[in-house]
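Aim 2 progress update. The chain analyzed this quarter is reproduced below.
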Amino acid sequence: MDGHILQTIGLAGRGDVTAEGLVSVKTPPQTLSPDEAAVIQDVASFEAVDYVFFRRFSDDRSSQPAAFVIDNSDERFSTEDLARIHNALWLHGVAPLVYVAWPTRVDILTRKAHVVRRTESLLHR
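Predicted structure tokens:
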């Protein structure tokens, strides 16, 4: 994923510096906590998700997945594909947000109700 896209959504600084809690699904670090490793392994089955952003705590609480990041800057997924992916991620129920990076914009997808309407309108034309 282009670092510029991660910078645009506030998940990376300059160079290779990423936000604390941003974990690559394709190349996760070896030092993940067991709860983060389980989420990464689980979400890897969706194949479209490139990163998971975890909310990490300073006490002993487990990290919480806060967002999935999909790099669609090469437009490999159509709007219809992304509607289906988003619906599947919502039904999975792990993270409340999905960031989708396009060549010229970043979509922030929330709430299952919006996805259902969007999916219906895209699939039933």
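The longest helix spans residues 79-92. The helical segments are 3-8, 34-43, 79-92, 112-123. These observations will guide the mutagenesis experiments scheduled for the next reporting period.
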